[in-house]
């Protein structure tokens, strides 16, 4: 995203970030209620959290050095100051210097934020990162060499490579700053148990001890769970937030209620028991609500993708030809039209449509091409009387939109080849995650929201054998590793484009993951709700949402 060839210095005017808008002069509602079928996957600690909703809450409770403007399109110009007021980068792209805000207190009203907290946060994060967290998934330790405090309010990042997406990486929630008082450093960095014990997890009855942040627009006042599932969260305005003086957050209290499925969520917003419904409403309900004069449907840019993962650890998907045969039998048109009623796009690449580097690489396999599927499998002895059989898994917790319907369509399209037989299986999200970690699912559906806005984020975490272990599909190709390393370390747009073209072509040859569709972002609210921005970051910004009395 940043082209480095000559000395580049980026100076951002200190003070309030320019993307915040003029506050309304009318009286605003003190409290809003939001409903969702989502939940926290593991915790609210940036070192391990790696799910959409977990990051949504981390973003409300904490801050990074920089952040994306509301309405961002993916340009580096969309990045605005947060805890840093200005920054610069050296000619070789290996040293980034950040000047920090001064006199900013954590929510404890005692501890003043300074450069030592930045270093502490990154040293801790990289030191105790495990395979389920973003730090490993993204590969922070392959990018950042060290973080050095040069003065109380100045910090330098020394990189191992000139990383094109570094500023975007600093905007993602895995890069958020933690309060050392609530984020312990392991007593022994070489001991996995000690590192694991340093991760902050849910503490029943103690919301403050359930997360390590404290610089964000909100404080976590209540977090209750029932039988291991989220029941309710309450966010309350943090008076020490760096932009509180400008009137943020606009709504002082946000209550989040959790629903078991899209049916319950739809009923709640239709009855106006809640003010906002976000993730996951069915496509049918969204279309119906577009004609409801008491509700407003918000539609935004989609950078969310879904894909089919094939486990290469054992048969049948340890065979490349079988994976290609499955890839050729995917009917994306049926998926988009029947499951999402046209509210999605067919996707032939892991890089989203509209993002730099995207090509329709998987279209070369067909959509579908059953003749190709039959020919590939025939060479391996499969036919109409001896079908390729496997189990396809999907999650049941509303973590992804219409998961069961997706699985049903995939089963139907694969079996339409005449030479494949699919059995469906499912699990709630916590169990699904465990199955993924245990590597006992043959084929399974996953989805992805961007960590940072760059094609690297849709490629490296999935295909780099040294950094993609979170997905547990056991894909390993040294040539792919080389291409990914060259692409993330190259800051020339033309060279990166060529490399991503090669990466996508190689992905089609290997078929470890098969992209299916790219979704749009939707929210439904009561008529008075304002301040919602569904942009390419896919970030939900609680602090900008409000309603007039």
Topology summary:
Layout: E1 31-36, H1 52-61, E2 66-68, E3 79-81, E4 84-89, E5 95-100, H2 115-128, H3 134-138, E6 144-151, E7 154-159, H4 166-171, H5 192-197, E8 218-226, E9 229-237, E10 253-258, H6 262-270, E11 276-277, H7 283-289, E12 295-300, E13 305-310, H8 320-328, H9 332-339, E14 344-346, H10 370-378, E15 388-395, H11 403-415, E16 420-427, H12 429-438, E17 443-448, H13 456-463, H14 478-489, H15 493-510, E18 513-519, E19 521-526, E20 529-530, E21 546-547
Parallel strand pairs: 1-10, 1-11, 15-16, 15-17
Antiparallel strand pairs: 2-3, 4-5, 5-7, 6-7, 8-9, 9-10, 11-19, 12-19, 13-17, 13-18, 14-18, 20-21
Textual characterization of the structure:
The protein is an alpha+beta fold. It folds into 3 domains: 48-55 and 62-197, Dipeptide-binding Protein, Domain 1 (Dipeptide-binding Protein, domain 1, Alpha-Beta Complex), CATH 3.90.76.10; 208-301 and 521-547, D-Maltodextrin-Binding Protein, domain 2 (3-Layer(aba) Sandwich), CATH 3.40.190.10; 305-519, Dipeptide-binding Protein, domain 3, CATH 3.10.105.10. Helices cover 26% and strands 21% of the residues. It has 15 helices and 21 strands. Strands 8-9-10-1-11-19-12 form a 7-stranded mixed β-sheet, with helices on one face. Strands 14-18-13-17-15-16 form a 6-stranded mixed β-sheet. The two termini are 42 Å apart.
């Amino acid at each position: 995203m940043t082209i480095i060839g000559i000395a580049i210095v980026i100076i951002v005017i200190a003070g309030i970030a320019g993307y915040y808008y003029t506050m309304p002069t009318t009286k605003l509602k003190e409290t809003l209620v939001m409903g969702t079928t989502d939940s926290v996957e593991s915790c609210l600690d940036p070192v391990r959290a790696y799910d959409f909703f977990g990051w949504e809450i981390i973003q409300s409770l904490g801050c990074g050095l920089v952040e994306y403007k509301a309405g961002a399109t993916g340009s580096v110009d969309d990045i605005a100051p947060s805890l840093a007021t200005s920054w610069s980068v050296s000619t070789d792209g290996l040293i980034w210097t950040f000047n920090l805000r001064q006199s900013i207190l954590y929510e404890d009203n005692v501890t003043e934020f300074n450069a030592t907290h930045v270093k502490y946060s990154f040293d801790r994060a990289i030191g105790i990162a495990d395979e389920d967290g973003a730090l490993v998934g993204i590969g922070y330790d392959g990018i950042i060499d060290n973080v050095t405090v040069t003065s109380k309010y100045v910090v330098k990042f020394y990189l191992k490579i000139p990383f094109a997406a570094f500023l975007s990486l600093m905007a993602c929630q895995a890069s958020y700053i933690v309060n050392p008082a609530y984020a312990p450093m392991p007593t022994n960095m070489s001991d996995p148990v000690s590192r694991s014990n340093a991760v902050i997890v849910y503490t029943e009855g103690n919301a403050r001890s359930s997360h390590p942040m404290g610089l964000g627009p909100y404080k976590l006042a209540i977090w209750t769970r029932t039988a291991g599932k989220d029941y309710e969260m309450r966010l309350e305005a943090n008076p020490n937030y760096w932009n509180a003086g400008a009137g943020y957050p606009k709504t002082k209290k946000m209550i989040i209620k959790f629903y078991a499925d899209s049916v319950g969520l739809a009923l709640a917003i239709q009855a106006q028991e809640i003010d906002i419904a976000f993730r996951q409403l069915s496509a049918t309900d969204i279309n119906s609500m577009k004609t409801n004069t008491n509700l407003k449907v918000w539609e935004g840019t989609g950078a969310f993708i879904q894909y089919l993962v094939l486990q290469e650890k054992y048969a049948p998907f340890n065979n490349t030809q079988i994976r290609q045969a499955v890839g050729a039998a995917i009917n994306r048109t049926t998926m988009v039209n029947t499951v999402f009623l046209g509210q999605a796009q067919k996707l032939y690449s892991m890089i989203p449509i509209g993002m730099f580097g995207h090509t329709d690489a998987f279209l070369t396999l067909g959509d579908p091409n059953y003749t190709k599927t039959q020919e590939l499998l025939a060479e391996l002895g499969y036919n109409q009387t001896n079908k390729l059989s496997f189990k396809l898994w999907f999650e049941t917790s509303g973590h992804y939109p219409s998961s069961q319907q997706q699985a049903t369509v995939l089963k139907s399209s694969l079996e339409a080849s005449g030479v494949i037989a699919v059995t469906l299986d499912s699990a709630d999200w916590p169990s699904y995650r465990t199955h993924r970690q245990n590597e006992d699912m043959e084929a399974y559906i996953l989805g992805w929201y961007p960590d940072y806005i760059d094609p690297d984020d849709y490629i490296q975490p999935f295909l780099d054998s040294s950094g993609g272990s979170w997905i547990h599909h056991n894909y390993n190709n040294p040539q792919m590793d080389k291409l990914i390393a060259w692409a993330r370390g190259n800051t020339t747009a033309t060279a990166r484009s060529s490399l991503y073209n090669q990466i996508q072509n190689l992905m089609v040859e290997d078929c470890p993951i098969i992209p299916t569709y790219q979704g749009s972002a939707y929210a439904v609210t009561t008529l008075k709700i304002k301040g919602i921005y569904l942009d390419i970051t896919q970030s939900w910004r609680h602090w900008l949402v409000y309603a007039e009395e």
